[in-house]
Amino acid sequence: MSLQGKRAIVTGSTSGIGLGVAEALAAAGAEVVLNSFTDTEADHALAERIAHAHRITARYIPADMSDGAACRGLIEAAGGCDILVNNAGIQHVAPIEDFPVTQWDRIIAINLTSSFHTIAAALPGMRDKGWGRIVNIASAHGLTASPFKSAYVSAKHGIVGLTKTVALEAAGKGVTCNAICPGYVLTPLVEAQIPDQMKTHGMDRETVIREVMLERQPSRQFATTDEIGGTAAFLCSDAAAQITGTTISVDGGWTAM
């Protein structure tokens, strides 16, 4: 699954799923552009570490994914791309009648609208080259729902619809567009929630993971960032040239129920 000579932009990629995807694409030989909304020495050092580890070129470009102009500016600043992975996302949980409007707007902007802007900016260049891969990180919540997550579920369902639309518009041009739908993935943010859950439920670590956090995930195991990265790398490979407009669930059987 060599991606040598390809440039990949991964939004929201300084930790968690985004970083796992960036590492996998770099391991396959792609030049990688990391992104987040900050601009620190640590951000640029992370790009340098990935470049050194995989002997590829890696850069960090800051851009606020809640700002449409900044989203499009990211693609321009990178000089276009062959691979675009839309991963940036945030979450807020509340009953719909109490859901803060500002949180709704921010989640829709970052989790959905940012992908519209980055795809609109990147797709013409992919068409011109006759090759491109767009991978949108959706969620099991792009295929099903949970209470108190109205904005997140709406945005992720929207990402699945956007994926299908872009796939149809790009069909026959050498460009594919697909969505990965993870269930619970063991990221630093999820890891940080475990001690509080242990305290709240009076359970040990393994019981909290199995019976509380992974209640809806039949495998009772977290997906890993490496697994999501490997799935993304496959979708970017020539072996996946005829896979487009679809979702791939990495959710331990969640959406099979």
TrEMBL record:
InterPro entries: 3-OHbutyrate_DH, NAD(P)-bd_dom_sf, Sc_DH/Rdtase_CS, SDR, SDR_fam
Official protein name in the record: 3-hydroxybutyrate dehydrogenase
Native organism taxonomy: Bacteria, Pseudomonadati, Pseudomonadota, Alphaproteobacteria, Rhodobacterales
Cited PROSITE patterns: ADH_SHORT
BP terms from Gene Ontology: monocarboxylic acid metabolic process
GO molecular function per UniProt: 3-hydroxybutyrate dehydrogenase activity
Xref: Pfam families: adh_short_C2
Family: Belongs to the short-chain dehydrogenases/reductases (SDR) family.
